[in-house]
């Protein structure tokens, strides 16, 4: 408790306490008291060490306050005249310039054998991203282009096939019609006989569809015979065809054909 | 393996926290555990010959290492970031303070003005450190945290004190990186006195290599 008092170099308190402890120890028989005594010894030695320390530094007294002031001067403090009325601190007034500690640091670095900190100059992460980015972009563009090209190509193919199919069919039917007519030019071909497929309704519709192309293009003609039933014949490719086609275009026949009738 | 270790050490040294042997074994050496000492020695040689840095073991029990600069001091300005420079300035002041006061400074409260609630609040240091948080942030944290972790300072509790008090001394890194002679010379320069003015400090400085 009386640590500070003991620390006082002028006091012999420590020595007195030690002597007292010595005498007390003679009377000790229990372990607990011995432990207390040991504790006291530790305390005493620590105080003793401090005392010795202070003795040492008193020989070459280091005035830390003066040192502090000198440090401030070294750092280039601007001392201002300050009234001590408001400030309870009795420290000299003034403010340090911005580079105060840098100046101190310059001085310090002269003495420290400090290994300069190692940093990568270019930074290991900076150069990578741009390169892959470009590559990715280019790849994307390339693949997109291909896809687009693939698409129109596909579409074209489909459309072509569609058209081809229809055209082919139409031509085929025209061919059949012409062959028939060539064989027997005087016997008219019944329209219904021509288009109806006894086995397939869908086929019949398709045939009608194809025949309508022929008529539209003026390659075939539908006329009504004596019975009022339509007959179909190929047109002759001649100047007279123009009139006919005009006339033909005027006649619109709606054929109502459903599955029941077909049967 | 050796060059990997060299790189590892150089990068690890950035924070200036001592490097443990366990870290070296785990991250770099791995399976080559048996060749550990050879690899470390060769790495040390490379560091010295290529970079002029010395690999020093500061704790032989716990096997901790630091890198210090082994090149003779060059003329001209030392290339360093400003933040680093300022911290080194503060460190020099603190190390000087501790040395001149007999190698150990307490942070306890005392009657005769020697007491200090914190080292940075020491009445003698206050004029220097007050209002310096713009430069250093939390000064006490810097002193008891960073400087201690980097082994520039060592703080030990004083036994039997309640509330616990601490004393501050030079840490092993400080002892390797700076000499007492240089510190005394800097104090002399700043105060405008001769180093021999403080006889006991002077003789101690002369005695320490």
UniProtKB/TrEMBL annotation, chain A:
Where does the record say this protein resides? Chromosome, Telomere; Nucleus
Domain spans labelled Non-structural maintenance of chromosome element 4 C-terminal: 188-263
Any idea which UniProt keywords this protein has? Chromosome, DNA damage, DNA recombination, DNA repair, Nucleus, Telomere
- The UniProt regions of compositional bias labelled Basic and acidic residues, in chain numbering, are 134-149
Grouped into one coarse class, the protein's main location is nucleus
- Asked whether the keyword Nucleus is assigned, the reply is yes
| Annotated segments matching region Disordered | 129-160
Q: Which InterPro entries match?
A: Nse4/EID (IPR027786), Nse4_C (IPR014854), Nse4_Nse3-bd (IPR029225)
- Which Pfam families does this chain map to? Nse4-Nse3_bdg (PF15412), Nse4_C (PF08743)
Annotated Gene Ontology cellular component terms: chromosome, telomeric region; nucleus; Smc5-Smc6 complex
**Alphabetically, which GO biological process terms does the record hold?**
DNA recombination; DNA repair
Q: Which residues form the Nse4/EID protein Nse3/MAGE-binding domain?
A: 37-90
* Cited function: Component of the SMC5-SMC6 complex, that promotes sister chromatid alignment after DNA damage and facilitates double-stranded DNA breaks (DSBs) repair via homologous recombination between sister chromatids.
Q: Which family does it belong to?
A: Belongs to the NSE4 family.
Q: Subunit structure, per the record?
A: Component of the SMC5-SMC6 complex.
This protein is called Non-structural maintenance of chromosomes element 4
Q: Can you name the source organism? A: Alaudala cheleensis (Asian short-toed lark)
UniProtKB/TrEMBL annotation, chain B:
Q: What SMART domains would the database entry show? A: MAGE
Q: Which GO terms describe its cellular component?
A: nucleus
Q: Show the InterPro entries listed in the entry.
A: MAGE, MAGE_WH1, MAGE_WH2, MHD_dom
Q: Which Pfam families match?
A: MAGE
Where does the MAGE domain lie? Answer: 1-205
Q: Which residues form a coiled coil?
A: none
Q: Which PANTHER family match?
A: MELANOMA-ASSOCIATED ANTIGEN MAGE ANTIGEN (PTHR11736), NSE3 HOMOLOG, SMC5-SMC6 COMPLEX COMPONENT (PTHR11736:SF14)
Protein name, please? NSE3 protein
What organism is recorded for this protein? Answer: Alaudala cheleensis (Asian short-toed lark)
The root-end lineage is: Eukaryota, Metazoa, Chordata, Craniata, Vertebrata
């Amino acid at each position: 408790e009386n640590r500070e008092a003991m620390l006082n170099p002028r006091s012999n308190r420590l020595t007195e306490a030690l002597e007292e402890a010595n005498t007390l120890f003679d009377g000790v028989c229990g372990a607990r008291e011995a432990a207390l005594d040991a504790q006291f010894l530790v305390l005493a030695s620590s105080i003793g060490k401090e005392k010795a320390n202070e003795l040492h530094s008193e020989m070459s007294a280091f005035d830390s306050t003066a040192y502090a002031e000198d440090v401030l001067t070294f750092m280039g403090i601007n001392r201002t005249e300050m009234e001590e009325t408001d400030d309870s601190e009795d420290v000299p007034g003034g403010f340090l310039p911005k580079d105060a500690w840098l100046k101190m640091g310059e001085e310090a670095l002269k003495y420290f054998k400090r290994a300069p900190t190692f940093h990568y100059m270019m930074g290991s992460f900076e150069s990578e991203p741009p390169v892959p980015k470009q590559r990715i972009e280019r790849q994307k563009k390339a693949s997109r282009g291909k896809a687009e090209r693939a698409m129109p190509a596909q579409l074209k193919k489909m459309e072509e096939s569609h058209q081809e199919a229809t055209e082919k069919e139409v031509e085929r039917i025209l061919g059949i019609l012409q062959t028939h007519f060539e064989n027997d030019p005087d016997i008219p071909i019944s329209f219904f006989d021509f288009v109806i497929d006894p086995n397939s309704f869908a086929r019949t519709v398709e045939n009608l569809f194809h025949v309508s192309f022929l008529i539209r293009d003026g390659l075939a003609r539908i006329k009504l015979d004596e019975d009022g039933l339509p007959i179909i014949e190929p047109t002759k490719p001649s100047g007279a065809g123009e009139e006919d086609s005009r006339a033909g275009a005027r006649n619109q026949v709606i054929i109502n054909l459903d599955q029941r009738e077909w049967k | 393996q050796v060059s990997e270790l060299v790189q590892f050490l150089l990068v690890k040294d950035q924070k200036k926290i001592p490097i443990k042997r366990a870290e070296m074994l785990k991250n770099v050496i791995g399976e080559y555990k048996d060749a550990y000492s050879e690899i470390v020695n060769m790495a040390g040689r490379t560091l010295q010959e290529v970079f002029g840095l010395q690999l020093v073991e500061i704790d032989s029990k716990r096997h901790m290492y630091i890198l210090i600069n082994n090149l003779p001091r060059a003329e001209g300005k030392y290339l360093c970031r400003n933040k680093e420079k300022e911290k080194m300035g503060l460190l020099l002041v603190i190390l000087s303070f501790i040395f001149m006061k007999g190698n150990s400074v307490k942070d306890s409260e005392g009657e005769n003005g020697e007491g200090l609630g914190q080292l940075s609040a020491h009445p003698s240091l206050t004029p220097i450190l007050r209002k310096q948080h713009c430069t250093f942030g939390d000064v006490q944290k810097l002193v008891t945290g960073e400087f201690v972790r980097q082994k520039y300072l060592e703080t030990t509790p004083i036994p039997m004190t309640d509330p616990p008090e601490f004393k501050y001394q030079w840490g092993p890194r400080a002892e390797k990186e700076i000499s007492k002679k240089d510190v005394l010379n800097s104090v002399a320069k700043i105060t405008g006195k001769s180093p021999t003015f403080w006889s006991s400090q002077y003789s101690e400085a002369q005695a320490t290599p």
